[in-house]
Amino acid sequence: MTPSTASTPSLDVRGLAYAYPDGHQALFGVDLTVGRGERVALLGPNGAGKTTLVLHLNGILTGGAGSVAVAGLPVAKKNLAEIRRRVGIVFQDPDDQLFMPTVREDVAFGPAAAGIRGAELEAVVRRALERVGMAEFADRPPHHLSFGQRRRVAVATVLAMEPEILVLDEPSSNLDPASRRELADILRSLDVTVLMVTHDLPYALELCPRSVILSEGVIAEDGPTAAILSDEELMARHRLELPYGFVPSSVA
């Protein structure tokens, strides 16, 4: 394994192209570099290829042309265990990630599977729950929590693995305003690279200084989020719309 260095980007995608077995070409040569500690929003209409790109980051999808590297480590079969530790994906529905009797056991599941035991495991779980403000709920069954609390626990299950990249799929969906704000505060506090897949453009502006538009399987735009959201012609061309009356400068 090549050791990581501070200058190595968290994510380096080169010429990534992928066609599904039915012949549908989802990606046509994507180039994307994300530096350590960056928070980047991945925007685009439905069917643009966003999910296909994300599934290449931890090797769920393989076999396409091009390359993907995480902190300098190629996403390849021989590296998949380490890659899946480094790339933590938080799904849109937290119930897809929470399946143990208690919050503590859910957060401990990944580290325990990686061989961490005893006091060290307890410390890892406590630290991950503290980072999302859920330490006092460690002994609760996840299904007794609110939707927003379950999403925060889902983030903790990923943080417990100390990932290089945190990938969030529609993190603000189905959250009430207070939960939305609490999650935003948590995400701003984290010292990891964040790639946020979202249709919530104000949330992207609030949390991600940089945005990338993926459209028809290619990177159509890459730049400051405020500049992208202020470009009405660009937005319309890629079927992106701000909420009625929202002005990008109101958050930027």
UniProtKB/TrEMBL annotation:
<keyword id="KW-0547">Nucleotide-binding</keyword>
<protein>
    <recommendedName>
        <fullName>ABC transporter ATP-binding protein</fullName>
    </recommendedName>
</protein>
<dbReference type="InterPro" id="IPR050095">
    <property type="entry name" value="ECF_ABC_transporter_ATP-bd"/>
</dbReference>
<comment type="function">
    <text>Probably part of an ABC transporter complex. Responsible for energy coupling to the transport system.</text>
</comment>
<comment type="function">
    <text>Part of an ABC transporter complex. Responsible for energy coupling to the transport system.</text>
</comment>
<keyword id="KW-1278">Translocase</keyword>
<dbReference type="InterPro" id="IPR017871">
    <property type="entry name" value="ABC_transporter-like_CS"/>
</dbReference>
<keyword id="KW-0067">ATP-binding</keyword>
<keyword id="KW-0812">Transmembrane</keyword>
<feature type="transmembrane region" description="Helical">
    <location>
        <begin position="53"/>
        <end position="76"/>
    </location>
</feature>
<keyword id="KW-0472">Membrane</keyword>
<dbReference type="InterPro" id="IPR027417">
    <property type="entry name" value="P-loop_NTPase"/>
</dbReference>
<dbReference type="InterPro" id="IPR003593">
    <property type="entry name" value="AAA+_ATPase"/>
</dbReference>
<comment type="similarity">
    <text>Belongs to the ABC transporter superfamily.</text>
</comment>
<feature type="domain" description="ABC transporter">
    <location>
        <begin position="11"/>
        <end position="241"/>
    </location>
</feature>
<keyword id="KW-1133">Transmembrane helix</keyword>
<dbReference type="InterPro" id="IPR015856">
    <property type="entry name" value="ABC_transpr_CbiO/EcfA_su"/>
</dbReference>
<keyword id="KW-0813">Transport</keyword>
<keyword id="KW-1003">Cell membrane</keyword>
<dbReference type="InterPro" id="IPR003439">
    <property type="entry name" value="ABC_transporter-like_ATP-bd"/>
</dbReference>
<dbReference type="Pfam" id="PF00005">
    <property type="entry name" value="ABC_tran"/>
</dbReference>
<dbReference type="GO" id="GO:0005524">
    <property type="term" value="F:ATP binding"/>
</dbReference>
<dbReference type="InterPro" id="IPR005876">
    <property type="entry name" value="Co_trans_ATP-bd"/>
</dbReference>
